Amino acid sequence: MIRRDLHRHLAVIALISVLAAAAGCSSSASVEGMIQAPVFIGVSLREAEAKAAAAGVQVEVKSSENSDTIPIDFVLRQDPEPQTMVRKGRVIDVVTSSGPVSLTLPEFVGGKFEVAQAFIVANQLVLGDLVEQVDTSPVGTVLDQDPAANADVNRGSVVTLTVSRGTMATMPDLVGLSLTESKKRLGALGFSVSKVIVSPQLTQPAQLVLMQEPAAGDAIEKGGWIELTVSKVP
Are 163 and 140 a contacting pair, CB within 8 Å? Predict the structure, then answer.
């Protein structure tokens, strides 16, 4: 009776050993076929493919999304996530960046500066140096834009506008001319002298223009202030 129980006990132990060994082999084989998914997020697609090949997995681009921070063709997300246990040969899906959000510039030329400025600010663009130009268009009318209308630009891009200063003219050089001649030249441009200052300086002939305001070459508006300083009559 004791011998029979002993044989039965030994048989149970042997069976448990066989099952444990089989389970161990199965677990070892399972672990050997698994790896941690590499980190593809933040690297270029080319680098991700190289890392995938080295790890024994594959990379497949499922879609692309705009990003203001991640360069074009860099990985934004992956599935499964990094360091997840996956079987070798597994395809890992990635979403890549298509770069910043772009927008198409409207036609600003012919419109008001304030409208163009509002669009630039609202769309996170940067207003470049404002160029003013004498023109028959009303003051503040947009005469030119860079980039041109219908151009695709990214956020943060610089947009330069040229706007009208209205009808203006260039101040002629009057220094050394007589007051009479100076008034004549200004009259031909549609301007008149606003104020004459007589200097104590004596010059032959008398009343020669010694100084002028605005200076020669300055842009002056119709009806703008013009002041001449002339020499004293002997």
Answer: yes
Do 136 and 221 meet the contact criterion of CB atoms below 8 Å apart? no
Phi-psi category of 230—alpha, beta or left, where left has phi over 0 and alpha has psi -120 to 50?
Answer: beta
pLDDT, one tens digit per residue, over 107-145 is: 999 999 999 999 999 998 999 999 988 788 888 999 999
**Which residue type does 34 have?**
M
147 preceded by a cis bond (ω within 30 of 0) = yes
Taking the C-alpha atoms of residue 84 and residue 225, their distance in angstroms, rounded to an integer, is: 78
User: Which domains does the chain show, CATH number per domain?
Assistant: 35-99 (3.30.10.20), 102-164 (3.30.10.20), 170-232 (3.30.10.20)
Straight-line distance from the first to the last Cα atom of the chain, in angstroms, rounded to the nearest whole number: 156
The token pair that represents 150 in the structure block: 């219908």
Average pLDDT over residues 48-60: 96
Query: What is d(CA 57, CA 78) in angstroms, rounded to the nearest whole number?
Result: 13
Of the candidates 46, 62, 49, 58, the residue with the CA atom closest to the CA atom of residue 88: 58
Listed residue (163, 151, 158) closest to 112, CA to CA: 163
User: Is residue 231 within a helix (H) or strand (E), and if so which, with residue range?
Assistant: strand 227-232
Q: How far apart are CA 106 and CA 125, in angstroms?
A: 13
Say if residues 230 and 196 touch (Cβ distance below 8 Å).
yes
Q: Rg for the chain (alpha carbons), in Å?
A: 42
Element (H, E) at 63: strand 58-65
Pairing between β-strand 209-213 and β-strand 142-146 as defined by DSSP bridges: unpaired
State the DSSP code for 74: B
